[in-house]
Amino acid sequence: MAKLGEFYQRDRSLHPPALTPVYKTSVARSPRFSLISLENSASETTGPTFGQGDIAPGDNDLLTNYAADGETAIGERILLHGRVLDENRRPVPNTLVEIWQANAGGRYRHVKDTYFAALDPNFGGCGRTLTDENGYYCFRSIKPGAYPFRNYVNSWRPAHIHMSVFGSGFVQRLITQLYFEGDPLIPHCPIIATLPDKSAVEQLTAALDLNATIPLDTIAWKFDVVLRGRRSTMFENRMEGN
Amino acid sequence: MSQKLDYLRETASQTAGPYVHIGLAPLATGIEIFDHDLGLDIAGPNAKGERIRVEGRIIDGMDTPLRDALIEVWQANAAGIYAHPEHEGEVEEGFRGWGRSVTDFQSGEWRFDTVKPGAVMGRHGRPMAPHLNLWIVARGINIGLHTRMYFGDEDAANADDPVLNLIEWEGRRKTLVAPREVRDGMPVYRFDIRLQGEGETVFFDV
Ligand SMILES: [Fe+3]
């Protein structure tokens, strides 16, 4: 039946555990029992597929996708680009990438966001795209502002963009946040502090990419995402029996 | 010393935060950018099988429903086939098998309208009872939680299900089984997910 390989086991030491008291909201929202380890079946090795019919061409341009005709969002114009790869270094093509972010002042277009910073009438804050056959994706946006959040009284989020990625199997599903190289708030953020591994923080930090920067126009940031890899060996994987 | 393995390492998860809906269900927050939100139509008009509703809440360790969560479902069609190019078999035109729902900002209720999936062939030729694969993200959840929902009217299949039987504590298996009721002629399965505390739902490392 399935030709799809099983996924490599998720290396949980790279991910934040469920319970991280430094990030207070996790305390009441974290399971206390151990996760039950499950070997892959078709329920795990398969996942939804997306196509061009699911999105529209301008969906990945946050500078203009909410703006009035002839207007653009306020802020530092950025290009966010990179590749979606798997742990085997293979590109993940045609996969859905969705992002959301605060505006340049650090304010989200959301009823629950009561921060003083002004809303930008020309900025919605979300975008989506499909990776191409090489796993490449690209968004245009503005650099989000830092914003405070109620954790400690003086907790601030560094500038960040939230990103959701699918892959080819439902258990590759990933939501993460990317940060910007050189941001002095990174070492002070309680949500980043949930990560047990310093190298995981580096992997979440987009690099300034002057080669991709459009002169006199837009600063580029490079951010590659790595999803779980699949097993594939000369010998058949053993999902279907011994 | 030895040769270096050249695998990459998976990108770490970070919480979806309180504004996940802006990105994944913008219309639900009143942001009209896209012509449609994704994941609203799971089964499509041509899917065979019984039309059902699945609903519930996601409840935290203080017994309070989350009102800022997002839940995704991945399911087979009524014949037990996933809409994936490499899963053998055909699904109906328009059947995607994937959906997402946001919890109501006041009540915390989430809901899917779909068709009841069939049994899916599992490992070693052992069928798995009909089930939904669910994935939950929210503020305060550092890495998305995977669980399954089984159907309360499938006692015999559930009793033989290889995944439910993996759960050593029999009393915890029922946290994955949703009771069925019929409301205005529509079968409704009620599935409350408890993140913590008494009756904590079983979550999987998949
Ligand atoms: Fe944020």
Automatic annotation (TrEMBL), chain A:
EC number: 1.13.11.3
GO terms assigned for molecular function: ferric iron binding; protocatechuate 3,4-dioxygenase activity
Entry keywords, A to Z: Dioxygenase, Oxidoreductase
Residue intervals of the Protocatechuate 3,4-dioxygenase beta subunit N-terminal domain: 8-40
Domain Intradiol ring-cleavage dioxygenases: 46-229
GO biological process terms on file: 3,4-dihydroxybenzoate catabolic process
Matching SUPFAM superfamilies: Aromatic compound dioxygenase
Enzyme class: oxidoreductase
Record-stated family: Belongs to the intradiol ring-cleavage dioxygenase family.
Protein name, as recorded: Protocatechuate 3,4-dioxygenase, beta subunit
Provenance organism: Wenxinia marina DSM 24838
From TrEMBL, chain B:
Keyword RNA-binding included in the entry's annotation: no
Gene3D superfamilies: Aromatic compound dioxygenase
Glycoprotein recorded as keyword: no
InterPro entries assigned to the protein according to its UniProt record, in alphabetical order: Intradiol_dOase_C, Intradiol_dOase_core, Intradiol_RC_Dioxygenase, Protocat_dOase_a
Family, similarity comment: Belongs to the intradiol ring-cleavage dioxygenase family.
Keywords: Dioxygenase, Oxidoreductase
GO molecular function, one term: ferric iron binding
EC number assigned by the record: 1.13.11.3
Limits of the Intradiol ring-cleavage dioxygenases domain: 36-197
SUPFAM superfamilies, sorted: Aromatic compound dioxygenase (SSF49482)
Pfam families, per database record: Dioxygenase_C
First-level EC class: oxidoreductase
Name this protein carries in UniProt: Protocatechuate 3,4-dioxygenase, alpha subunit
